[in-house]
Prior knowledge:
Elements: H1 2-9, H2 13-16, H3 22-40, H4 52-64, H5 70-79, H6 86-92, H7 104-112, E1 115-124, E2 130-138, E3 144-150, H8 155-166, E4 174-177, H9 185-193, E5 197-200, H10 210-222, H11 232-238, H12 241-247, E6 270-275, E7 280-285
Parallel strand pairs: 1-4, 4-5
Antiparallel strand pairs: 1-2, 2-3, 6-7
Helix pairs in contact: 5-6, 8-9
Amino acid sequence: xxxxxVYRLAPTVLNALAxxxxxxxxxxxxxxxxxxxxxxxxRGGGRPTVPPEIRKLIRELSIANPLWxxxxxxxxxxxxxxxxxxxxxxxxMVRRRDPPSxxxxxxxxxxxxGIAAMDMFVVPTISFRLLYGLLIMGHGRRHILWSxxxxxxxxxxxxxxxxxxxxxxxxxxxxIRDRDGAYGEVFIRRLRSMGIRDRPTxxxxxxQNAYAERLIGSIRRECLDHVVVFGERHLRxxxxxxxYHNKIRTHLSLEKDAPISRAxxxxxxxxxxxxxxxxxxxxxxx
Length: 286
């Protein structure tokens, strides 16, 4: 508009503008526009900006807790000693197109405490007899609930082991097992009377009872493969490995913690205690 007005007053002004292209004028205008709004955006007071680390924390909280809204996250930040406005929390939360929903990992973990698994394994003795070990474990923290040893695994013996392991009041909701012939009618009736739902795996599908299979593999690799078993009494002593597994041994699936969580020790001298005659060791501070 400026150049059009000048041209109406003095048409010869085009001779003076011959050295400037229209693209150059547009470029100048855009540079001036950026400079103007950069100047307008200079903070002269008002609410302070939220530090980048707090913005990152707000995003992490909203991602990890999809069911939390701005008020809940704001309250959590206040308990962490972070003074920030609720509107700022809502501003930096992660936006979702779909309604909030839990992930499969959370869904499975919420049901793991009501699931137990059991399996049997064979151990040869020094006299070439076969002993049978029984393991019952909880899915919640992968801890061993019970271990038993016998030379004759009858259905009645297995039923008694389940009763000893779980009791009548703290029985799991579901019990996963394979289709071994030792689980007879007596065993199934005992589960029903305890309110436990029997969940046998498909034939030739050990992966459906993966937790128990992995536990037996760990016991073999870390314990039974390194000793010669004399008899039932000796095998029961060796399976005191259960206490080591539950209280001392760290697990990758539990974020390097034991099934029965170990307290963090920061002070004192480190003491080494042998486990199973020195096959493993426990380290504590005293």
